[in-house]
Specification:
Length: about 240
């Protein structure tokens, strides 16, 4: 008798576990379902409930929820972003900064922490860090207007142009259209100086992009500036 009771009790427990896990997955589409998932079993539900809470302005419990989410699912960079947001709500700026830095290092495909760390780099004068994050933002196409604004600030200083040139010299697919983006963010003189610096460091730049910028410069009568970065023709393919 006791064995049968234990057996059926185990079946009921397993059934409850299956239902809870299913509800947790459905919370991807409906955050309110997370409320009926037993607290120890929340994973996706924990994330959605926290997101909903932060959208509403956050509470004193938000940071604790974010820490618990990280304990259960420590790998996604998104969860560090949520911790940063929750920490900011509670006034813990140091934790928010550390969480954003960790998110930027862990997942370059998360645009928000990349933008935040890029802004911090520009404000503090840490241009190499800002250049790394701008490269990541360019690669994923995240926050284009804000990225161009930060580029414009960096192009205003020799240190910023040097950091961008060094990042361009590292290469990567993101550099294919970066020349055009640079031209939009700053003056032609700043563009020419950055390209000169990048080439001196061994950067391989897309000739078609340079030609497009050169043609606009020539139309404006800026032959001397164009000559600094444009050889006059792209090599035959």
């Amino acid at each position: 008798m006791i064995g049968r009771i234990a057996f059926y009790g185990l079946l009921l427990a397993l059934a409850g576990l299956v239902v809870s896990v299913q509800l947790d997955r459905q919370a991807l589409d409906d955050p309110q379902l997370g409320l009926v998932v037993p607290e120890p079993l929340r994973a996706v539900a924990q994330e959605r409930l926290l997101e909903a809470q932060l959208v509403a302005g956050g509470t004193a419990q938000s940071a604790g929820m974010a820490r618990e989410l990280l304990r259960r699912r420590p790998l996604p960079a998104r969860h560090l972003v949520l911790l940063a947001q929750a920490a900011q709500v509670s006034g813990d700026t140091d934790l928010a900064i550390r969480a954003l830095e960790g998110a930027a290092l862990r997942g370059w495909r998360e645009p928000f922490p990349q933008l935040a760390v890029a802004q911090a780099g520009v404000i503090s004068g840490n241009y190499p860090s800002a250049a790394q994050r701008i490269a990541a933002l360019t690669a994923m196409g995240g926050y284009p207007e804000e990225t161009n604004r930060l580029l414009g600030i960096m192009l205003d200083s020799a240190e910023g142009r040097e950091a961008l040139a060094s990042q361009m010299a590292l290469g990567g697919r993101w550099t294919k259209y970066f020349a055009g983006q640079l031209a939009q963010a700053g003056t032609l003189e700043q563009f020419a100086d950055t390209i000169e610096r990048a080439r001196a460091k061994g950067a391989l730049l897309d000739c078609g992009q340079l030609q497009a910028v050169a043609e606009r410069g020539l139309a404006d009568g800026e032959e001397d500036l164009v000559a600094r970065f444009w050889p006059g023709a792209c090599p035959a393919r």
